[in-house]
Amino acid sequence: MSYTTKENLIECFNPATQEKISDVQITQEPEIRRMVKKAEGAFLIWSSLGIQKKIEYLKNIYDIIISEKNNIAQTITKNNGKPLAESYLTEIASTLQVMEYFIKNGANLLSNKEIALGPLYPTKKSFIEYEPIGVIGIIEPWNYPFYLPFSVITKTLITGNTFIFKPSSTVSAIGKLIEDILTRSGIPEGVANVIYGDSRAADILLDSEIDKVVFTGSASVGKKIAEICLKKLIPVCLELGGKDPAIVINDSNIDYAAGGILWGAISNCGQACASIERVYVQAEIYNEFTDRISSLVRQLKIGDGLVDETDVGPLINEEQLIKIEDHINDAVKKGAKVLCGGKRIVRDGYFFEPTVLTNVNHSMKVMQEETFGPVIPIMRFEEIEEAIHLANGSKYGLAASVWTSNNDIAKKIASSLNCGTVWINDSLFLQAHPACPWTGYKESGYGSSTIYDFTKPKHINFDKGYIPGIRPKSYWWYPYKGKAGSYSDLIEVLYKPTLKEKATASFKTILDFLK
Ligand code: NAD
């Protein structure tokens, strides 16, 4: 249990100690509906504010985050359990990276873009204007409880939208912190709204007059949300689960690959959407690799994330512990070998030993379902094609990593993998860098969340206007008499492949058009 609900309160607990850290009021239905109405009203004001003014508010948020980073990191670690080092790096620094990027580049990215129309349209100009969408419903998970919301909130605000954000109830204390930062930034009332509660609060939000949903969470809930959005005919971005493979080729530096895969699999206690959840190692280095990574796993310091030396904190709750035990038991029953770890740690909090499994195969849950824990299942392969086939043998397609000193092999494998991101000789870092797309394939979701996904592109085309003898009218206007033959010639001039063929087509016809 890392939260319970009682008398309209969410009680939040520290997953490392099971101590209560705060009570947060559940937002009731009338209040959620009122907030959505207010956000609709605020949209009119916020969307018409100039971009520099919006950026000023983002800068206020950015400044508060920097000046209060220590308090923020403590709250994240207390409510989510991750080590302080990760709270600073993967939550606060990542948030600031996104904010800084859009504060610097937002105006340019969102400025009107002129489109080259080509010589056929000498009097016309086209450009794209990026309009805001409206009120965005943002529903987020507990595993990156500060960075994920702020990444979406930044793009929502800079593009001129207003929002209602629902954090996972598990991390309501961090949601409160986010609400507090938003309020203190001075952002106009009604623009930025936070609601608290579980799926019931999400359902009310989804039933309201929102204009888009950005959902990050499990594939099962994502499918339900997709159905609701389909019925409402509103756009949705789904960032869902993963079962990310790592492929290690014979020519890899084993120390480097083992260290990188260890971090990619175990950081955040393995509870990242893009955690390495399956490792495929080429036969020649398989034994050395499994020995090396097991020895590194044994050196990890497990404990309360607030303690400086802690590498691995607790899992978020009891359900996670039960799921991981189930995956390991299933694997062992089907022949897997536990090289190290394999069981929960008896102490307060939800601690599980980082685990290395070998002799695994694709009939096991640990190689098919999202484990979301500190477990590294390793499988041997002979040929590279076999590794690609195994890596693609999952219902998920979020990310993958390839470990080799041969760039050509790396690129070839990367292009063959059926997923949205591939890291070569690293993993997990730069997850969702603001300048790069982050999108899942297959059951890992759809709809990326680039800045443009928070806008409605509007194409505006204008003609300089008709001046007799100087600027012609559009040549396709009435009357048609005599034009069919000219159009036929025009098609040849434009689309015949060789110059000679084009030249034989009638230039006289073109002159006719321009009259
Ligand atoms: P979850 O799907 O259980 O919950 C996510 C959010 O949805 C929470 O706010 C929750 O309250 C709400 N919710 C839960 N049930 C709901 C329902 N029936 N209707 C409407 N809303 C509902 O996910 P989680 O356990 O909080 O997070 C872990 C999952 O998120 C993992 O699968 C992980 O891979 C995924 N994730 C994906 C990304 C990505 O970028 N692709 C990033 C982080 C996490």
Key features of this structure:
single chain, 515 residues, alpha/beta, Aldehyde Dehydrogenase, Chain A, domain 1, Aldehyde Dehydrogenase, Chain A, domain 2, 3 domains, seven-stranded mixed sheet, six-stranded mixed sheet, binds nicotinamide-adenine-dinucleotide
Description of the molecule:
- By secondary structure, the protein is of the alpha/beta class.
- It folds into three domains: 29-112 and 134-240 and 448-458, Aldehyde Dehydrogenase, Chain A, domain 1, CATH 3.40.605; 244-433, Aldehyde Dehydrogenase, Chain A, domain 2, CATH 3.40.309.10; 474-514, no CATH class.
- It is 42% helix and 19% strand.
- The chain is built from 16 helices and 21 strands.
- The protein has helices spanning 29-48, 51-67, 69-80, 84-110, 147-158, 172-184, 199-207, 219-232, 254-266, 283-299, 318-333, 384-391, 407-416, 483-495, 499-504, 507-514, and strands spanning 3-6, 9-13, 20-25, 113-115, 124-132, 135-139, 162-166, 192-194, 212-216, 236-239, 244-248, 276-282, 337-340, 355-358, 375-381, 396-397, 399-403, 421-424, 441-442, 445-446, 455-463.
- The chain has a seven-stranded mixed sheet with strand order 13-14-15-12-11-17-18, with helices on both faces. A six-stranded mixed sheet has the order 8-7-6-9-10-20, sandwiched between helices. The chain has a three-stranded antiparallel sheet with strand order 1-2-3, covered by helices on one side.
- Helix 4 (84-110) packs parallel to helix 5 (147-158).
- The chain is globular.
- The mean pLDDT is 95.
- Nicotinamide-adenine-dinucleotide binds next to helix 7 and helix 8.
